[in-house]
């Protein structure tokens, strides 16, 4: 087994003292706080970051766990923000340590092989970062339902099951190997937008309306930045502050609003929410790539071609007149009826 470096990478996840997500402005300030410890800080919007503190150990006279405790103290004292921190020898293990930690906890994975193997062994296949639901189901169908069993499987077996590239990646990660560096100047890998309801929302139609607005906004931001998403993640936060997260790989990289909306609706429908009291929805475009590198399946559907022309016209209008200049009609509040001074309240309300 390739030796895992000694702990020196922090995966930090932020939340307010009330357990709510931090805002964009506070997130930027928190990234600045991490930069006081090391210049190797990689933002993971909207509420997490990676920091490689190996170069700061001697300066602060502490090990990585000691620096993590100092980060936790300063974020709480200066910004009233709690952070959950995973400390390990590489980003993979640090991320998994943070995911398994309690809110506000610092969890350390020692660098020796035995500790890494024990940390990973009994976790389910789906807990391995980079293994999606479909890959996890495939592995479980062959009896490889835990990371320990995956690590014990011959690499050739995994490559036959998953393909050469994916099989090699999964085998390495199951053994705690992740050569990915912390890249402070790397392009953003994800882009997120959140909608908070004014009250705990039970109406699925209102939730779909919020998803439409989120998908449309994300698509517009990606097109402006010349990016496309390979996957879409939906995070549902409930009245009791618990959350459900689901990710869907897209058929092709895209920033096309209707395609993102269709994927968002599918994620929402798959949850089967009946009487759930939903407090907020977060939609995250994942695994971003440059738009010019994305391939698109050609179609002879005139409706698709028309939708893309309309989208381009909407983008031009927004660039000239502002973001609110144009958008899906379903996301717009109803206009006041002509000749009255009253505002329509929507399908559940009455005018005046």
Please give a structural write-up.
It is a single chain. This protein is an alpha+beta fold and 352 residues long. It folds into two domains: 9-174, Reverse transcriptase/Diguanylate cyclase domain (Alpha-Beta Plaits), CATH 3.30.70.270; 191-331, Dna Ligase, domain 1 (2-Layer Sandwich). It has helices at 24-35, 57-60, 64-79, 91-99, 113-121, 133-141, 147-152, 155-162, 164-174, 204-225, 257-271, 302-321; strands at 9-16, 41-44, 48-52, 81-88, 106-108, 190-201, 227-238, 243-254, 278-286, 289-290. The strands form two sheets. A five-stranded mixed β-sheet has the order 2-3-1-4-5. Strands 6, 7, 8, 9 and 10 form a five-stranded antiparallel β-sheet that branches. Helix 10 runs antiparallel to helix 11 (257-271). The model is unreliable at 334-352 (pLDDT under 50).
Short structural description:
By secondary structure, this protein is an alpha+beta fold. 40% of the residues lie in helices and 21% in strands. Helix 1 packs across helix 3 and helix 8 packs across helix 9 (164-174).
Q: Helix- and strand-based class?
A: alpha+beta
Oligomer: single chain
CATH architecture of the largest domain: 2-Layer Sandwich
Reading off the top of the CATH hierarchy, the class of the largest domain is best stated as Alpha Beta
CATH topology of the largest domain: Alpha-Beta Plaits
Distance between the termini: 72 Å
Outline, from the CA principal axes? globular
- Helix content bin: 40-55%
């Amino acid at each position: 087994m390739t030796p895992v470096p000694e702990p020196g990478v922090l995966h930090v996840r932020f939340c307010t003292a009330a357990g709510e997500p931090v805002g964009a402005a506070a997130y930027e300030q928190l990234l600045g706080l991490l930069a006081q410890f090391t210049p190797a800080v990689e933002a993971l919007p909207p509420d997490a970051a990676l920091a490689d503190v190996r170069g700061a150990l001697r300066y602060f006279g502490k090990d990585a766990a000691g620096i993590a405790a100092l980060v936790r103290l300063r974020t709480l004292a200066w910004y009233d923000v709690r952070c959950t921190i995973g400390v390990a020898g590489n980003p993979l293990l640090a991320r998994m340590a943070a995911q398994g930690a309690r809110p506000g906890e610092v969890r350390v994975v020692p660098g020796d092989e035995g500790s890494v193997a024990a940390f990973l062994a009994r976790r389910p296949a789906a807990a391995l970062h980079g293994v999606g639901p479909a890959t996890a189901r495939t592995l479980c169908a062959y009896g490889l339902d835990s990371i320990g069993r995956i690590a014990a499987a011959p690499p050739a077996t995994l490559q036959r099951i998953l393909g050469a590239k994916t099989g090699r990646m999964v085998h390495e990660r199951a053994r705690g190997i992740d050569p990915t560096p912390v890249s402070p100047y790397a392009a953003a890998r994800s882009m997120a937008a959140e909608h908070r309801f004014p009250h705990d929302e039970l109406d699925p139609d209102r939730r779909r309306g919020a998803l439409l607005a989120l998908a449309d906004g994300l698509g517009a931001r990606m097109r402006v930045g010349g990016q496309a998403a390979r996957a879409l993640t939906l995070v549902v936060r409930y009245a009791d502050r618990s959350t459900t997260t689901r990710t869907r790989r897209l058929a092709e990289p895209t920033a096309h609003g209707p395609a993102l909306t269709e994927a968002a609706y599918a994620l929402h429908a798959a949850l089967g929410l009946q009487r759930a009291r939903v407090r907020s929805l977060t939609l995250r475009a994942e695994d971003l790539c440059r738009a010019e590198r994305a391939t698109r399946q050609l179609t002879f559907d005139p409706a698709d071609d028309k939708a893309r022309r309309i989208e381009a016209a909407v983008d031009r209008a927004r660039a000239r007149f502002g973001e609110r200049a144009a958008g899906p009609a379903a996301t717009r509040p109803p206009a006041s009826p002509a000749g009255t001074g009253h505002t329509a309240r929507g399908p559940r309300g009455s005018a005046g």
